[in-house]
Amino acid sequence: MAALVQALGDALQARFGSVRVCGELSACTQAASGHRYFSLKDAQGHDALIRCALFKRSAAHLSFVPRDGLQVEAVGRLALYEPRGDLQFIVESLHLVGSGSLYEEFLRLKNRLQAEGLFDEARKRPLPAHPRRIAVVSSLQAAALRDVLTVIQRRAPHVQVVVYPSLVQGTEAPVALVRALQQAADDPDTDVVILARGGGSLEDLWCFNDERVVRAVVGCPKPLVCGVGHETDVTLSDFAADIRAATPTAAAELATPVRADELQALAEQARRMALSMQRSLDRQGQHLDQLAMAVLRPAAVLSRHQQGLQALQGRLLRAALEPLQQEGLSLQRRASRLMAAQTQQLTLAQRQWDRLRLRHQAQDPSAVLQRGYAWVSDAHGAPLTSALQAVPGQALTAVWHDGRAQMRVESVHPVTKGDSPRRP
């Protein structure tokens, strides 16, 4: 009996060789060993059925999960299962017939998840302007990963990149993608997550339509950019992500600023701040000039303070430009140090100006007159600084802080050496 069954099996293999057949899946099961078993029914509705086996090694390359009702094309060989003498089709590869049924499933799942609010724009977050660490979820062998790393290195070499490898195709890919996304989200230093894969057919990209992956994208606590496929490829993960990029390269560009542009913008800001500070110093200098005109001998004092202001201006400009020459600091630290240095210099300038104003106020002649003194001048307005300059009968003018008086000298009494002046 065994010889007969074995002979029939050899005859089947010799007669048919490799077989390609289309049909509808039925009675799909998966064994603990990883092998899959199912039946193929005639696609035209005829009463024809054959039992099939898809071993674990071949099943690992599937881009979809076999289930009842799917129209597929199977390639394999015919064999007899000798313990029972059953005719069996050993499937080596399995593909969906066209994309019609798969696309219908895509639309059904999309509508259901959209009704739950998973694709709402209101829940999506903006990307950080200056990320410090980017997590990339992709396959280590994918060309898409190389594209992403190349773009980040070119645009923002200071940004740290951590790659979380995952399968990006096949029935085991959804579980691997969910695990990699969770690992990226658990890193507290991660600022942005990029989900990347190159282009492919609807079957090749089906793992990114898996409901588990879509919910993992929605639940990621970090802003996520989805760059899966080419520009025309669309997956449900694209709808769930915070930002959808047309390609993996575009995803890297969206997640990173151009370092040179940021440094240029910072330099422009420093230039504007220095110019504003210069205008403020000019106004303070003009104010000092006005105060100098109201005092008796301000020239020497103002000259010294003008030199001090010029030195302060030079220090301020150097403090504004110095951070731009330091390559190791981040953009945030440079802006902070620049603002602190300029604020400190402005405070010092204000204090110097206050001290100078008080000093000039103390030298104001009107302040001396308010203490009971008077300014005495002759008829030509020349000041009399000594009693010896006065002669009897001379007309003089006395100026107090609140007015003046015309007077005439009746007598002059000089003070001899050793005596002190007395009140009349």
Secondary-structure map:
Elements: H1 2-16, E1 18-30, E2 36-42, E3 49-54, H2 56-59, E4 71-81, E5 86-96, H3 100-115, E6 133-138, H4 143-155, E7 160-165, H5 173-186, E8 192-197, H6 211-219, E9 224-228, H7 236-240, E10 243-244, H8 248-255, H9 259-292, H10 299-321, H11 331-362, H12 365-369, E11 375-377, E12 395-400, E13 403-408
Parallel strand pairs: 3-5, 6-7, 6-8, 8-9, 9-10
Antiparallel strand pairs: 1-2, 1-4, 2-3, 4-5, 11-12, 12-13
What would you note in describing this structure?
- With 424 residues, the protein is an alpha/beta fold.
- It folds into four domains: 2-97, OB fold (Dihydrolipoamide Acetyltransferase, E2P), CATH 2.40.50.140; 123-255, Hypothetical protein af1403, domain 2 (Rossmann fold, 3-Layer(aba) Sandwich), CATH 3.40.50; 259-363, no CATH class; 369-408, no CATH class.
- 42% of the residues lie in helices and 21% in strands.
- The chain contains twelve helices and 13 strands.
- The mean pLDDT is 82.
Just name the CATH architecture of the largest domain: 3-Layer(aba) Sandwich
First-to-last CA distance: 157 Å
**CATH homologous superfamily classification of the largest domain:** Hypothetical protein af1403, domain 2
Structural class, please?
alpha/beta
Largest sheet: 5 strands, mixed, barrel
Strand content: 15-25%
Would you tell me the overall average pLDDT? 82
Class of the largest domain in CATH?
Alpha Beta
List the domain count as a whole number: 4
Strand segment tally: 13
H-E order: HEEEHEEHEHEHEHEHEHHHHHEEE
Task: Count helical runs.
Answer: 12
The spatial strand order of the largest sheet comes to 1-2-3-5-4
Q: Give the CATH topology of the largest domain.
A: Rossmann fold
The residue ranges in which pLDDT falls below 50 over 5 or more consecutive positions are: none
* Proportion of helical residues: 40-55%
Radius of gyration: 45 Å
Overall 3D form: rod-shaped
